[in-house]
What we know:
Layout: H1 10-24, H2 28-36, H3 39-49, E1 58-62, H4 68-83, H5 90-95, E2 97-102, H6 105-112, H7 114-117, E3 126-130, E4 143-149, H8 158-168, E5 169-180, H9 187-196, H10 199-211, H11 215-224, E6 228-235, E7 240-246
The chain binds S-adenosylmethionine (SAM).
S-adenosylmethionine is lined by residues 17, 21, 32, 62-65, 68-69, 102-104, 107, 132-134, 149-151, 154-155.
Amino acid sequence: HATRFQQIKEEEKSKLVGNVFTNVASSYDIMNDVMSAGLHRLWKERLVGKLSPFAGMKHLDVAGGTGDVAFRIFDAFNSVKRRALRKVDEASHEETQIYVCDINPNMLNVGKQRPAERGLSDNRSLVWVEGDAEALSFDDNSMDGYTIAFGIRNVTHIEKAIAEAYRVLKRGGRFLCLELSHVDIPVIPNLGELIAGDRDSYQYLVESVRRFPPQERFAKMIGDAGFEKVEYENLVGGVVAIHSAIKL
Ligand code: SAM
C-alpha cells in the first residue's frame, strides 16, 4: 500500500535517515535488544564469525552506528591474538585498525563512549569516521574486510554502496552484509514509539525493510559490482540474511 514514505524524493531520503538515527541514537542499543529479543547479538556473532581476523588487518564497518559490530570484531581479533602461539608483536597490533564509518555523528558519539563503559582502555584499534556509504573517504584497495549490518537498506543507492565496498577492498578482501529480509511486523513501530517516543522513525525502518530487494536479487547486485563467490545464508528462516562475497 502507498504510504508517504514511498513518495519521499531521493534527495530527501538521506536527510530523513539522518533524522531517524539522530532521534534514536541514545536509545538505539536498548532498542536493538528489545526489538530482536536479543537475537541481533547472535546474528552479529554469526557475521563476525565469517571473518578471519589477523594482526595488522584493516577492516571497515560501514553504517557502523554505535560500533556494535566493530567491538565484536575487536574482541574476535583479541581472542585470536591470545590463542596465537607466538606473541604478536606490538608493532603489528598497532597497525590493526577497525574503522567505524557512519553518516550520523550522534550514533558515532554514543559508540565512542562505549570503550570506557566496558572498562576498555586500549581502543586505539577503533577509528570513528563520519561518512556516507555511497562515497567513502577511504583509498582504493585499502581494506581487508568490509561489513555492513542493518545499514544497507537505509542507503539511497544500494548499487553505489556496493561499488564503494568493491573499490576500497583489497584483492582477496571479503564483503559481508547482514540485513533484515521482508517481514511485516506491525508491532515494531509501536515499540519504537514506546521506547524512543518516535513512531515515525520506526515506521520508516519498517518501510525500509519492505522495500529492500529479496536475497536473490541483492546477491545478483553484488555480483554485478564485480564480486565473486557471492553467497547468502538465511537466518531464522530468512528474517535475516548474511550476504558474503570476495573481491578477487
Ligand atoms: N551497524 C549498526 C548495528 O548493527 O548495530 C547500526 C545499524 S543502524 C540500524 C543503521 C545505521 O546506518 C545508522 O547508524 C545510520 O546513521 C547509518 N546510515 C544510514 N545511511 C547511511 C549512509 N548512507 N552511510 C553511512 N551510514 C548510514
